[in-house]
Amino acid sequence: MPSSVAAPPRERQQWLDVARGVAVLLVVAAHVVDFVSMRGERAALLEPALQVVQAFRVPALFFVAGLLLAGYRDRPWRRVVRDRVLLFAWLLVVWLVVERLVDVVLERDPWQSPLELLGYVATWFAFPDHNLWFLAGVLWMTLVVRLLARRLWLMLLVAGVMLSGLLPALPLGPLERFYVVQAPYVLLGVVLAPLVLRVGARASLRACWGAVALFVPLGVLRWYGVLDPLPGALVRVTVALTGIAALLAVGRLLAELRGAAVWAHVGRNTLAVYLVHYPLSLLVFRRLDVVAPELVPDNPYVAAVLVVAVGVGAGLGLAALVRVTRLGGVLTAPRWLLRLFDRLWPEGGRPTVLRPLRRRPVARRAPAPAPARLTLLAEGPGRPGRAAAAPAAPSAPLRPDPAPPSVGLCGEECVSAVCSGERRDAAR
User: Fold this and answer.
1) CA 309 vs CA 134, 185, 277, 284, 312: distances in Å
2) How is it placed in the membrane, per its record (predicted)?
């Protein structure tokens, strides 16, 4: 792909934020309906619609993450690691601890010692087992995107192989299937970012309705199993891609309506909503339902709507609190961690662990003074020849040795200059 179209536009597009807001709302609603069903109740009217959108809701979040990550493709490694990888890794650690504490409060798991908790967090990065796997997927795909930044064709090939299901089974924990076949949508988002952002900004409303109309029959046919005789990977990827196109079209349509700023605000705070809603839903349906059941409505539809609203509102409230108080470490990397990173990997330099070891200069000894030379005096009358000590020839005054060259600082030029100076002294 030509470099002139490799980077997406720099201006923020509201319709994309609206689409992100719709996508995260679908994710929250699906989780809440699952919690409602755990109470022994069913939201029968909501389940079919959520099952239809389930084919694309998480791939859509990954795809949009790829659209936003495309701007980091050509940036230096240090910037990518500092702004993205370090952030996602820190948030995973913090919110894994938060969810573990929620499990302790709900008596789902016993309290673990700090060492056991550290081992759990370290193991989780390779073997994710619950909803935070989305952040882990974005983290690993970010590294792949930067590694293959100059080879978009190879990035597309990797995404195709992973989405096709041709890879052997990998021991990635309970979410292995989702982890392997959904995270690669980040790569597709990066590759298609210039096209999607350009078309999305100029698409007509009629074309947007056409994208929605294309997905609906495919989603319904998949729900009723009509597409089951076809290859599973083909059906899954086709429905997901048409669903992503429909979601982006919905974002474009809602951006033209009054109140689009609300959806865009949710989309700009997707991370906060995603992180907060799951432990909050656990507390509502597992603890509040036991301690104060009157606060949780018996009607599954009312309960689902209320908990979705509370989850989204709590996420937005936390994001506002972080902005006002500048509370680091909850939704952003803390300042001490960034300062430590800057010290270990300074701007314009290499990481400390990758710096080559410098050779220590060897101190040179000052040359010893030349010994007096013995000369044989001529024999004179009445004076036998004898050896006497002749006065030493005047020598050049001793000068301090030049400082030993530092190869790491001045290179071969300094070494050659010092050597030529020594040859001149020897010639004298």
Assistant:
1) 22, 28, 10, 13, 5
2) Multi-pass membrane protein
Provide the percentage of residues in the chain whose pLDDT is more than 90. 35
CA–CA separation, 414 vs 403, rounded Å? 11
> Which residue carries 């299937």 as its tokens?
177
**Domain range list for the chain:** 3-344
- Residue 358, amino acid: R
Q: Which letter does DSSP use for residue 406 in this model?
A: -
pLDDT digits (tens, 9 = 90+) for 334-343: 999 999 999 9
The span from the CA of 319 to the CA of 314, in Å, is 9
Identity of the amino acid at 131: N
Q: Following DSSP, what letter does each residue of 1-37 receive, concatenated?
A: --GGGTSPPSS--HHHHHHHHHHHHHHHHHHHHHHHH
DSSP 325: H
- Using CA atoms, how far apart are residues 59 and 41, in angstroms rounded to an integer? 28
Side chain identity, residue 394: P
What totals of helices (H) and strands (E) does the chain contain, helices first?
19, 2
